[in-house]
Amino acid sequence: ESDTASEISFQFSKHKKTPSIGSHSSDMASVSSVSGSVLSVYSGDFGSVDAQGTVEFAVDYDEKNREFQVHVSQCKDLAVVDEKKGRTDPYVKTYLLPDKARMGKRKTSVKKRTVNPIYNEVLRYKIEKMVLLIQKLNLSVWHNDPLGRNSFLGEIEIDLASWDWSNRKLNWYPLKPRSLSAVNGVDHRGVMNLSIKYVPPGSLGLKNPPSGEVHIWVKDVKDLLQLRPSGVDSFVKCYVLPDTSKKSYQKTRVIKRDTNPVFNHTIVYDGFHTEDLKDACVELTVWDHEKLTNHFLGGIRLGLGTGLSYGISVDWMDSTQEEVAFWQEMMSATNEWIEGLLPLRSL
């Protein structure tokens, strides 16, 4: 049924006892690194101040150098973050959406102790014009905090598909509160077609299998983000959390130049006890493959979404209703393939 298969042993014994804080934080660090670059588009402390003021900037596309340019001029009348000291240390950050992971952020320098900062800086993206035209520019203003709790001061979002490219002048824009779509991470990243099943220990005969098995059949993915005109070179990573070791890690082969890749890859994890299913989480993430670095495209987490694993609070136990229902159906229908079509998300 599949052209590639992996079988690996997954032992939960070390997690049945209450894990030490050290090992727990190590797991968390590894997991957060998967999606940290994506989440950083809205990292920080959002609730401290209301958005106010304006920002002056211009956009242009340099055909010769194939470069998108954002000329950030200045801001006026920004909110005061530290009212006791009357202090705001603002900087401007830009993203191209929904392709946050690939393009990364660009940001200006920090201007200290001012609500009327002047930047006169150009933020540059090397990108093909036809790819740029399916993006949105998100420009946000932030207060820089030495301890890392940066405060959101406002944003503006521009649909580049409808932008008048003859307009190269600096224009003023009112800063707006954070949009609901940004808060909820609502952006289409594609859909994964997969099947899963749980085989309890001894269910196929005497001591067969000797321990429980979770089978994951990654069939295909539809409508991935098209990062370049030729498509995308994608592969799928799999972990069974809370284990983030090399023993847990599996991946498919790379499918080149295709936004609808067919993987047809099966992974089998043994070492499962039935009671482990409520504390474990299968994390499947899709990545674009490049020589220097891989770019996160989206993922799913299959589990009960309780926020807890072996009695410890963890942020990766955050499965959506669809993902939870899929996992619950597998738990209740042992030895049967459960088919699902689940939307990728930013995790």
TrEMBL record:
Gene3D superfamilies in UniProt? C2 domain
SMART domains for the chain: C2
A GO term, aspect molecular function? neurexin family protein binding
List the CDD domains hit by this protein, alphabetically. Answer: C2A_SLP-1_2 (cd08393), C2B_SLP_1-2-3-4 (cd04020)
Q: Which GO terms describe its cellular component?
A: exocytic vesicle; plasma membrane
Q: Which organism is it from?
A: Alectura lathami
Please give the name of this protein: Synaptotagmin-like protein 2
Q: Where in the cell is it found?
A: Cell membrane
Among the GO biological process terms of this entry, one is: exocytosis
Residues of the signal peptide: none
Sorted UniProt keywords = Cell membrane, Exocytosis, Membrane, Repeat
Do the record's keywords include Cell membrane?
Answer: yes
Any Pfam family the entry gives: C2
Q: Does the keyword Cell membrane apply?
A: yes
Every copy of the C2 domain together lies at 51-173, 188-317
Q: Which InterPro entries does the record associate with it?
A: C2_dom (IPR000008), C2_domain_sf (IPR035892), SYTL1-5_C2B (IPR043567)
